[in-house]
Write a structure and sequence with these properties.
This protein is an alpha+beta fold and 869 residues long. It contains 27 helices and 25 strands. Strand 8, helix 25 and strand 9 form a beta-alpha-beta unit.
Length: 869
């Protein structure tokens, strides 16, 4: 058969296998359900895909003013999709289909529908790449293909696709790294490794880190297990590996450096819980969600005679090592950047498991029958032990019976092969393997993902409902913003902090693993803003604090009419639909503001959040020590407040709630104002370390607090809540024991906000992609200009064409010092170190090409010398 036909048949076989192992989700798709997780899948994957599509197709590749309060999408979304090669190809295809009018205007439904076909194609590609590497290792085609099937069609692949789709892309690049290592060791050809490193670091910095740990272990293992006599000596290998890694990083640095900077510029509380070295109870033979080992692997690894083969020994020992890693939270922490243990590295395990299977199948005819019979016995013993020690599963369970049936069929088939030793019987054995594994992996998807993971609820009906992103919500928001000629932010979210990306409007919330720490500190510490939900990796709203809405461009808030409406000061009903109403801020301050008053950030540390708001209204807070004013101090009114327990007892800062709900009543004295708002601050901690998430209400304000055991808690226990003026502030908590102390109460009458609005001057500005332009004639000789755009590395500013120092204003935003007279101010964003990285990328690529040419010439000269000799 011609080679081209073999390739065609191989591709068709890989595609067929990919379709078969996706049959569960194909059936789900036909029933209106998507291959999509109900949590991060809906809350992050779809919004980010849609948002990047909107930005990229508009020619905006670096910055988005709709990414929360604004952010560098190229760097902050590189963990997800902004530099994902698979996503970029998918985006291109969808755009072409849109241009050809094959599909309508792409929306979240488009991206949800695309997950399944993209997954099938990606699995096919990963399978073929694995086959290519195994073939390079001189494994025959059929065993190589079978091994590739178990790599690409593994449980962890489907879990990755469903919950965090970009995770699955790592399956593509790992075989290329292994091939690159082998090319250097065997042929002294570094360009494959350079290309693999470059692709890996460009595609995703996080998984390149995980894959590089593996490839380092693999390369070291190859130093001890030599597969041929003419391999490059270790010292010579290093002379290839080191420059290859550097050049690969240099090429991929154009993505890697900005994304790593974004990661380092993120903030997440340190994980301080003890991490045991060993203690994962994952049942890798029966129920594991991530590393479900196929029975064929278990059988082959139990054959002692196979370990004489060096290639089998390499893959088998690496498999055993990574299976050991699966049981270690400490190792899982290392793979997760020395943070909380996360089991995301199982694709590495499945690659060496697949290699073990591929090599083992080639050795079956080389060992004695008794060794194979012993292996069958050991396999039965291992499955029996794993079932016996699993406290959540026993033989009477349907799933255990299902797995045991598959194990029995496979082992019986091999038993007949062992007894007869006919080549055609091996084919029957492999047919039985596939006939049991394909239904098993589909059933595993149904059990662990659709049922246990609630993926069965990811329906088209849900994605178009009021709980996610309905047409009614979209229509009202479009009507509101289309009537507004200026750039304005609207607060609205369903169950998702990224609703604004789904519906395409500038919002005031975000949920992403990588965020600008300046903004997070602004929320957590500087202004102590309660987001109505405690959780890391997100911010939302301004805690119903009118000053912040006015200063940070929060012009609109949308409410569900069926829920309690608590609009901040200055907001009035503006527009409505059947189920929703939008309030507009009548006290919105200009986008660009000027001032001569400067306050020092360090001097403001002794001031309260409300006093800091006033300083922001009155002037600018700077971090460099420059100050011209002293901030006002507002009185603490707690000495005019009586504190009484409700539904429990309170003494010495300890609150015991004995009823279903209780707490404290802060009864204000008769001489305190009954107009305006109050800011009440206090320290709150649940004394029960094992208590679950709990609700906290302070009059009309509702929020919740995480369990102390949650890895997603912010560890910010100092709260500031704004409530409407009243005679009693009621703090309510569920039954339990709490520490509540350090109370402070301040009154806000909004005279400063009203004055700022009355004195504000509209300053012309324009926003275009990654640039903000402001024109201001400084006749009053003001000193500073500030805009509500988050401060982060990558922003630069010019005044009248000359570069100026970029100031960090009001803790987390952009500012610049003004000149007298005309000021043409341009703020421009580029990813961090962009110009240098472009040069480094191109330079590394050119050096790689020159090195490759020189090596090729040397190789050709060597071959010529051999012929002449």
């Amino acid at each position: 058969m011609k080679r081209s036909w073999k390739v065609v048949l191989l591709v068709l076989a890989a595609l067929t296998f990919a379709i078969l192992v996706h049959m569960h989700f194909i059936r789900e798709y036909m029933d209106g359900r998507f291959m999509l997780g109900p949590n991060d899948g809906m809350a992050q994957m779809l919004p980010f895909k849609q948002h990047l599509y909107d930005q990229y197709t508009q020619g905006n590749f670096f910055y988005s003013f709709s990414f929360g309060l604004g952010g560098g999408i190229y760097s902050q979304l590189a963990y997800y999709f902004s530099t994902s090669i698979v996503y970029l190809f998918t985006l291109l295809v969808i755009k072409l289909l849109d241009i050809a009018n094959v599909i309508g205007s792409p929306d979240v439904i488009t991206w949800a529908k695309a997950i399944l076909p993209v997954s099938i194609i990606r699995l096919t590609a990963a399978l073929l790449l694995a086959v290519g590497v195994f073939r390079y290792l001189r494994i025959p085609l059929v065993p190589a293909f079978i091994g590739g099937c178990f790599y690409a069609g593994s449980a962890i692949y489907f879990r990755h696709v469903v919950y965090w789709e970009f995770f699955a892309n790592a399956f593509l690049w790992l075989p290329l790294l292994v091939l690159g290592v082998e090319k250097i060791i065997r042929e002294r050809k570094p360009y494959w490794f350079i290309a693999a490193v470059a692709i890996s670091v460009f595609d995703n910095f996080y998984f390149s880190y995980i894959s590089f740990i593996f490839i380092g272990i693999y390369a070291i293992a190859r130093w001890f297990i030599k597969l041929s006599e003419d391999e490059l000596p270790i010292k010579s290998q290093l002379l290839f590996f080191i420059p290859s890694v550097l050049l690969g990083f240099g090429i991929g640095s154009i993505s890697f450096i900005p994304s790593v900077y974004a990661f380092l510029n993120n903030y997440r509380p340190a994980f301080e819980d003890p991490i045991p070295f060993y203690g994962n109870d994952d049942n890798i033979l029966f129920t594991s969600r991530t590393l479900l080992l196929p029975v064929l692997f278990v059988f082959l690894i139990c054959v002692g005679g196979f370990y004489k083969n060096k290639l089998f020994r390499l893959f088998a020992l690496l498999s055993i090592l990574f299976i050991f890693f699966q049981g270690s939270p400490r190792i899982a922490s290392i793979f997760n950047g020395f943070s909380a243990p996360q089991y995301r590295f199982e694709y590495l395990s499945m690659f060496v498991v697949a290699g073990t299977i591929a090599v083992g199948l080639t050795q079956l005819h080389k060992v004695r029958k008794w060794q194979l019979l012993v292996a069958i016995g050991l396999t039965v013993l291992l499955y029996s032990l794993y079932l016996h020690h699993d406290m959540t599963l026993d033989l009477a369970d349907d799933w255990a019976k299902y797995v045991w049936t598959g194990v029995a069929l496979v082992l019986l088939a091999f038993l007949f092969y062992i007894l007869k030793r006919k080549a055609w019987m091996l084919g029957i054995c492999l047919a039985v393997v596939f006939a049991t594994y394909i239904p098993l992996i589909n059933a595993h998807q149904e059990k662990q993902l659709s049922e246990a993971g609630n993926v069965e609820n990811s329906t088209q009906q849900l994605l178009t409902s009021d709980k996610y992103a309905s047409n009614e919500q979209r229509g009202l928001i479009d009507d509101v913003l289309s009537s507004d000629e200026s750039f304005a932010r609207l607060e609205w979210k369903t169950n998702d902090n990224n609703t604004n990306m789904l519906l395409g409007f500038p919002g005031i919330s975000i949920y992403s693993s990588i965020l600008n720490k300046e903004l997070l500190f602004f929320y957590y510490h500087d202004l102590n803003i309660d987001m109505k939900r405690e959780s890391v990796s997100r911010y939302s709203g301004f805690g119903n604090r009118a000053n912040l809405y006015s200063m940070l461009n929060g012009k609109y808030i949308m409410f569900d009419k069926e829920e309690k409406i608590a609009a901040p000061y200055g907001f009035r009903p503006y527009m409505e639909s059947s189920n929703y109403i939008v309030y507009r801020n009548d006290n919105l301050l200009p986008f660009a503001r000027v001032t001569a008053a400067a306050f020092d950030e360090k001097e403001m540390e002794s001031h309260t959040p409300l006093e800091r708001e006033h300083a922001m209204l009155d002037g600018i807070i700077l971090s460099d020590g420059r100050s011209t004013e002293e901030a006002e101090s507002l009185p603490d009114l707690m000495d005019k407040v009586s504190v009484e327990a409700a539904g429990g007892t309170y003494q010495d800062g300890q609150l015991q709630v004995d009823q279903t709900e209780g707490g404290l009543d802060l009864k204000l004295g008769d001489d305190l104002p009954q107009t305006g708002d109050y800011y009440v601050s206090f320290y709150l901690k649940n004394n029960d370390a094992s208590a679950p998430l709990y609700d906290l209400t302070v009059n009309e304000f509702e929020t919740n607090r995480k369990s102390q055991q949650s890895i997603y808690r912010t560890k910010v226990d100092e709260l500031t809540i704004r409530v409407k003026a009243t005679d009693t502030i009621r703090i309510r908590l569920p039954e339990g024991s709490y520490t509540m102390e350090d109370f402070r109460l301040q009154h806000e009458d909004y005279h400063m906000l009203d004055s700022a609005v009355a004195e504000a001057e509209d300053i012309p500005f324009s926003i275009s992609h990654n640039q903000v332009t402001v024109d201001y004639d400084n006749l009053q000789e003001d000193s500073y200009l500030k805009i509500p755009v988050p401060y982060e590395k990558g922003w630069q500013v010019t005044v009248n064409g000359e570069s100026r120092e970029l100031l960090k204003a009001d803790y987390a935003f952009l500012g610049v010092q003004l000149q007298n007279g005309e000021n043409h101010i341009v703020f421009t964003y580029r990813p961090p170190y962009w110009n240098i990285l472009v040069v480094l990328c191109i330079g590394s690529l050119l050096v790689s090409l020159v090195w490759g040419i020189l090596l090729r010439k040397r190789h050709m000269a060597g071959e010529k010398g051999e012929k002449e000799a």
